[in-house]
Amino acid sequence: MRADSLDGMGLQAVAEQHTGAEAALDVRENVPLAPYTTLGIGGPARWFITATTEAEIAAAVQFARDRHVPLFVLGGGSNLLVSDNGFPGLVLHVALRGVHTSVERPNESVYVTAAAGESWDELVQFTVEENLQGMECLAGIPGSVGGTPVQNVGAYGQEVAQTLVSVRCLDMRDLRFVELTRADLRFGYRTSLLNAAERGRYIVTRVTFAMKRSGTPGSQPNLSYADLKRIFPEPARPTLAEVAEAVRGIRRGKGMVVDAADPDSRSAGSFFRNPIVPQESLERVAQVSGLHVNQVPHWPAGEGCIKLPAAWLLEHAGFVRGTVLGRAGISSKHTLALVNRGDAAQRDIAALRERIVNGVRARFGIELEQEPVNVG
Ligand SMILES: Cc1cc2nc3c(=O)[nH]c(=O)nc-3n(C[C@H](O)[C@H](O)[C@H](O)COP(=O)(O)OP(=O)(O)OC[C@H]3O[C@@H](n4cnc5c(N)ncnc54)[C@H](O)[C@@H]3O)c2cc1C
Question: How far is the CA of 233 from the centre of ligand 1 (A)?
């Protein structure tokens, strides 16, 4: 990854001069979506456009409007469950590239701006090689930079909300490019404005992060997560690159790095969010499991609520690693990952999902929520 290439593209200048209609678009028809997803599932998109500039993004939105068809924004396809019937409108694949690093002032944050179509993991690698702290624990997460603010991607003690400063987006209401700040984005656990209150309104074209130069105050790698503490016990002082590599190693062991050689990684990551439930639910969970409340893992979630680990609930409802249902299954390395065991269709994954959701509800009275986005 090369820094400063974003400005080289003149991304901002292009976007502000064009509202889009004149951009030449490469429109394809009836394009199978399965190859664009990490689950490898999904029928065809009626129309498919890959946009490499902001002008093309705006023009593609106009294209869908002119035909009165729905539009779906595709990043790296790592958090999607696409219908076997495909998508009846336009799939807009965001493929803008470029990374820019701000001029550095002593003891101030370094601002890294990346176009939405950049690979997230490559951006993480770029920042750790540049000795910039703030994303090292998010190494190995698949998908695009533009996809990360949507559900406030997080892992191993970090989430993008901690470093993200702003996103530039196309507001589809009036086809204008706007800057949304971290406060505007109303981040929460696996949520933001983009997948909640204003879902489907904005297309992210680039994201800016404030990073700390290694060696400046507060720039130590984040080792808050137990697995990382085990690898780097006190007084170890690993570099950012070492932490990122350790995270990738832990993730590989769980099938959570996309790898063609690992069938357990043919997934959409964690399929269920950790449910946030009223404190009283904890007693019921403990009671039906024959445990004391202190033996049930949970974290405070504010306002009289707690967060329960979805993986624990699945396991205690009988859905263990390696469970198989036809062509779908639970990863043999990670309880929360539903996998395509080969030629699975969306309905196979949906059947397994229903079985799990019903099983957990019947046992604990808790409603699990699907994390990947349904398409079509
Ligand atoms: C093996 C594996 C491990 C994973 N591990 C984690 C993890 O540890 N933590 C975690 O949080 N997630 C994890 N995920 C989920 C996923 O990688 C992230 O949610 C990722 O950020 C999705 O980005 P994407 O570009 O692939 O988005 P897509 O899957 O293409 O899209 C997801 C959603 O974002 C929207 N979107 C994408 N790009 C844009 C854009 N430019 N503008 C507006 N909307 C957009 C889409 O419309 C859709 O609603 C994992 C997935 C896999 C397969």
Answer: 32
What's the 78 CA to ligand 1 centre distance in angstroms?
Answer: 5
Q: In this predicted model, what pLDDT tens digit does every residue of 143-168 receive, in sequence order? A: 999 999 999 999 999 999 999 999 99
Same domain assignment for residues 364 and 289: yes
Residues 52, 53, 58, 59, Cα dihedral to 10° = -70
**Domain extent for 17:** 5-94
Statement to judge: residues 124 and 234 lie in one domain: yes
d(CA 331, CA 245): 22
Assigned token pair, 149: 């603010």
Q: Which of 56, 136, 159, 371 is catalytic?
A: 371
Which class for 295: exposed (0-12), middle (13-18), buried (19 or more C-beta within 10 A)? exposed
345 dihedral zone (left: phi>0; alpha: psi -120 to 50; beta) = beta
Given 210, 233, 253, the domain boundary residue is 253
Q: What is the pLDDT of residue 97?
A: 98
Of 38, 60, 94, which marks where a domain is finished? 94
> In the annotation, is 119 catalytic?
no
From the CA of 155, give the closest atom in ligand 1. 8
Is 270 among the residues known to form the active site?
A: yes
Q: Residues 243-281: pLDDT tens digits?
A: 999 999 999 999 999 999 999 999 999 999 999 999 999
Q: How far apart are the first and last CA of the chain?
A: 34
Residues of the chain above pLDDT 90, percent: 89
User: Do 106 and 247 have their domain in common?
Assistant: yes
- Out of 265, 270, 281, 331, the active site residue is 270
Q: Is residue 258 in some structural domain?
A: no
Number of domains in the chain: 3
Parallel, antiparallel, or unpaired for β 87-94 and 44-51? parallel
Pick the most confident of 224-228, 274-278, 299-303.
274-278
Residues 162, 154: Cα–Cα separation, whole Å: 10
Residues in CB range of 247: below 8 A, 6 or more apart: 136, 137, 138, 139, 140, 155, 156, 228
Pocket of ligand 1 from Cβ distances under 6 Å: 38, 73-80, 94, 116, 141-144, 146-148, 150-151, 153-155, 194, 203-204, 256, 258, 265, 267-269, 373
